[in-house]
Amino acid sequence: MDWKIERIRDRCAECSQPFTHDQRVVSVVALAIVENAERIVRRDLCVRCGPSAGAGSLFWETRFQQQAPKKKKVDFDRLLRIFEIWQKDPPKEQEALLYLITLLLVRKRYLRMVDLVTDGGREMLRLRKPGAAEQWYFTPAPLLTPADLPALRIQLEELIDGSFAEEEMPTTTDAQAVAEA
To answer: How far apart are CA 65 and CA 10, in angstroms?
Structure first.
């Protein structure tokens, strides 16, 4: 007989109402036939649907805890490819987004910031890509205000989540051509 008891569910097994954070939940363990075999089954119920005292089943009360959302895993190699193709052909009106991508890549040491230079009245970051072959880049360094950040954060999250179309992504040979240019 299998004694593995499942984790708490996110809704009542009886009335299907979703549980809220810190709500009292009654968990019932009973013997049931599942797939032609006897198994121990857990059912999570809201207090209204829970068993009455002396019902003859094993049960306990607990509190439902809302799970924190998982952190997004950032594909920095993908961000580096986007950065490299945008160096070759910068998207219009995306200077601030390119700057944020650059800062992320510098922080994770995919790029090294050499210095801040002025080119035609615009501040630019001069960057070097670590490695045997020296690759240099210039990226605009716009002045960002706190009001700019919410919209930029949304754009960056969309980019990280994969909204950048695959046909727009550079291939390995394109990335090498960008680096050599």
So the answer is: 9
* Per-residue buried b or exposed e for 10-38, using 16+ beta carbons within 10 Å of the residue's own CB: eebeeeeeebeeebebbbbeeeeeeeeee
Neighbours of 83 (CB within 10 A): 23
Q: What pLDDT digit, counting tens, does each position of 124-174 carry? A: 999 999 888 889 999 999 999 999 999 999 988 888 876 555 444 434 334
CA–centroid distance for 60 within its chain: 35
Whole-prediction pTM: 0.54
Cα distance between residue 159 and residue 85, in whole Å: 14
Whole-number Å distance between alpha carbons of 67 and 9? 12
CA distance 163 to 172: 20
